[in-house]
């Protein structure tokens, strides 16, 4: 398995262990992880700290050119909010663990030239399915279903 996706999965597992939603993300530049994040909506009572946003937050303020050499790894297809941040910072490549559970704004990203790689990782899928079965209300809250 891709070591960067493994790192994103570890972030998701840590988030789940802390009572959160098991979605993780890492940012990779020049073959090195420069940022890590997990969905922190529950833990921080946040409206916006999805895994991708959390990973971006973890690296702090960077010049615009910094992001153009970054690959974002995420265990689940990014939602429209996270996709907006990807587009804003012109992140050129997103590697997605799985998109069967939730198909985010991949078409939007592709239409703006972002390279999308979907791994269809069974462990990412299984982790989300187990979580949704056990905590459907949290999942629905996270993706905006009433």
Describe the structure.
The protein is of the alpha/beta class and 146 residues long. The chain is 46% helix and 21% strand. The chain has eight helices and five strands. It has a five-stranded mixed sheet. Strand 1 and strand 2 form a beta hairpin. It is globular and about 40 Å long. The mean pLDDT is 96.
Features:
globular, 146 residues, 8 helices, alpha/beta, single chain, 5 strands
Write the layout of secondary structure elements.
Elements: H1 3-17, E1 24-29, E2 32-38, H2 41-44, H3 51-58, H4 64-67, E3 70-76, H5 80-88, E4 93-98, H6 106-111, E5 115-118, H7 122-134, H8 136-143
Parallel strand pairs: 3-4, 4-5
Antiparallel strand pairs: 1-2, 1-3
Helix pairs in contact: 7-8
Give a quick account of the main beta sheet: strands, pairing sense, barrel closure: 5 strands, mixed
SS field, number of helical segments: 8
C-alpha Rg (nearest Å): 14 Å
The N- to C-terminal Cα distance equals 36 Å
Proportion of residues in β-strands: 15-25%
Structural class: alpha/beta
Q: How are the strands ordered across the major sheet?
A: 2-1-3-4-5
Shape: globular
**Could you list the spans in which at least 5 consecutive residues all have pLDDT below 50?**
none
Summarize the amount of helix as a percent range. Answer: 40-55%
How would you state the average pLDDT, rounded?
96
The tally of beta strands, per DSSP, is 5
User: What letter string, H or E per element, gives the SSE order?
Assistant: HEEHHHEHEHEHH
